[in-house]
Amino acid sequence: MLKIVALIPIEDRLIIKPDPPETVMKGIIIPDSAQQKKLTGTVAAVGPGKKDSEGKFIDVGVKAGDRIMYHQYSGLEFFVDGERFIQMKSVENLVCKIEEKEVTEGDNSDVRFDYDDEPVG
């Protein structure tokens, strides 16, 4: 019998560990068919990236351990030892990285949006 010991993505592919479904109403779990899927997870593994015309790897933009949001129907779902994972191409399916911080009561700081490009106009 063979056992999977490592998941090693190729090129710009990612392996995502999706967040578990939410439990509501004192322990009742809503079946997958009746709930909207959570579209967040943690990057479990990252490929080296695609190569540019000079043969250098193009950075994927995320690393293992990053929290991300992704498109609803993106990637390929698979299971390893009963654990659910999603394999996807990074550029096509990632929505954003998620930064989290501990907050104290009364902390009214807003969500920050970072953009790679300069504003137009």
Structure report:
It is a single chain. This protein has 1 helix and 8 strands; from the N terminus they run βββββββαβ. It has 121 residues and is mainly β. It has a domain at 13-22 and 36-98: 10 Kd Chaperonin, Protein Cpn10, Chain O (Roll), CATH 2.30.33.40. The strands form 2 sheets. Strands 6-7-1-4-5-8 form a 6-stranded antiparallel beta sheet. A two-stranded antiparallel ribbon has the order 2-3. A hairpin with a 2-residue loop joins β6 (76-80) and β7.
TL;DR of this structure?
The protein has 121 residues and is mainly β. The protein is built from one helix and eight strands. The longest helix has 4 residues, at 90-93.
Terminal-residue CA separation? 62 Å
Strand percentage: 25-35%
Q: Reading side by side through the largest sheet, how are the strands ordered?
A: 6-7-1-4-5-8
| Rg calculated over all Cα atoms | 18 Å
Q: Count up the helices.
A: 1
Helical content, roughly?
Answer: under 10%
Low-confidence stretches: none
CATH architect. name of the domain at 13-22 and 36-98: Roll
Determine the mean pLDDT: 77
CATH H-level homologous superfamily name of the domain at 13-22 and 36-98: GroES chaperonin
Secondary-structure-based class equals: mainly beta
Q: What is the total tally of β strands?
A: 8
Write the H/E string, N to C.
EEEEEEEHE
Report the sheet with the most strands, covering strand number, pairing sense and barrel closure: 6 strands, antiparallel
Outline, from the CA principal axes? globular
CATH overall fold name of the domain at 13-22 and 36-98: 10 Kd Chaperonin, Protein Cpn10, Chain O
CATH first level of the domain at 13-22 and 36-98 = Mainly Beta
